Amino acid sequence: MKQKVVIIGGGIIGLSCAYYLRKNGLEVTVLEKDDFANACSSGNQGWVCPALHAPVPEPGLVATSIKWLMKKDSPLYIKPSAMPQLSGWLTQFMKHCNEEDFKAGERALLKLSLSTLALYDSLQADGLEFEMHREGMLFVFLSESELNHKIEKLRNNQKVYGHDTPIVLSGDEVRELEPDLSKRIVGGILLENQRHVRPESLAKALMNKLTSLGVQLRSNTEVTGIERQDDKILAVMCRQERIEADQFVLTAGAWSGSLAKQLGYSLPMQAGKGYSITFSNPNVNISHPIYLGDSKAGVSPFQGAIRIGGTMELSGINTNLDKNRIQGIRQSVSKYLTDELHGESEMEWTGMRPMTPDGLPVLGKIPYWNNAFVATGHGMVGVAMAPASGKIMADLICSGETEFDIQSFSTSRFQKELKRNSPV
Fold first, then answer.
1. What range does the domain containing 374 cover?
2. Is 300 within the bounds of a domain?
3. Which of 102, 148, 371, 383 is the most buried (most CB within 10 A)?
């Protein structure tokens, strides 16, 4: 009899786990409390740029963020009214804003991401049809110092990890590539081997594939309780329905922390809200995804559309769309363009990135549980890391080990206070 797996959470990580588990022959059901891939998986930039992966907490961020705290158009904004509920998480976050932790986290992410492009190629080879672009990644800057700092960073990543060699461009060379960019841009960097996808198309392709493979995709099915015995989960409760399985995987993004509590598992998770605006049939022609180096915002061109986005807002778990943040993105992007961006229609969006205090995902078996696993906390690199994360979880569930080095993503790294008899 095939092993049954229940995946709790139908974002891009949950769908990827389902894909690799099903390809390994397991019987898979995915439970999503809302619509599939409708949270952080839907309106993000879709960058598949393994050369850029780094933890959010970085050296100097604490001092910089103090200047940003009360500015609603800053790259990082902490809502004052949310400070009490965020205080414990922020204390842990700030402890990781040091050189040693940042370098260790960056090394772990960059090593894991070496598999990213090959895994995306394998998805397409397996018949998944989604919008993927291979034009590379363009960085542009209004400041020489910011440009030089990024050049040094990317050259080091290439030297140490074998990622893309940065091609340094003058302002004029940038405008030769992208004529609709402003003359205020002093220079740029091109990474030729990076990619981007339209995340909605990727999610749809995974859902279509999973359906064809016999995976049960159940939307509007919220897990309300967990039935367990000793160190095993027997079933999850979805209102009055009881769903049994042999293995359970928690991939509920920013909501994972509250579900983990039901297992006595401490998972410090906060929502890092991002915002985007998608313009259909835009007046501006952009061919590369562009990182706006001074404002920390981004531009992603899709078929018949352009999406601009950015910011990191810490305001708790909520989907309130702050118009000031949206306006801040519009203003920051306008500095880099010759014309103000508009389209036939505009869609404003906000989504909650699942953020851990050290900025790294949590991948593996939940401590002290025999058949419970977790894959969450991917922050801003969920789309890029989804195939690797899905493969890792399938490896662990099917064989107990994986070829990937996941020590830095250990599920027990926040568990100093956990007691041996946690399952209750």
1. 1-53+99-132+196-265+358-424
2. no
3. 383
Strands lying side by side in the sheet with 372-376: 216-218, 27-31, 4-8, 247-250, 372-376, 362-365
- The SS3 assignment for 160 reads helix
Q: Which position has the higher pLDDT, 423 or 211?
A: 211
94: in domain = no
122 belongs to a structural domain: yes
CA-nearest of 192, 197, 202 to 51 is: 192
- Number of folded domains that form the chain: 1
Structural tokens at position 407: 């020590």
* Tokens representing residue 319 in the block: 């989907």
The helix (run of H) or strand (run of E) holding residue 217 is strand 216-218
Q: Is residue 225 part of a domain?
A: yes
Q: What is the pLDDT averaged over residues 399-410?
A: 96
Upper half-sphere CA count for residue 164 (Cβ side, 13 Å): 23
Q: How many of the other CB atoms lie within 10 Å of CB of 122?
A: 13
- The single-letter DSSP state of residue 50 is G
> What are the residue ranges of helices labelled H in 170-296?
171-177, 199-212, 256-261
Q: Indicate which CATH number applies to the domain containing 403.
A: 3.50.50.60
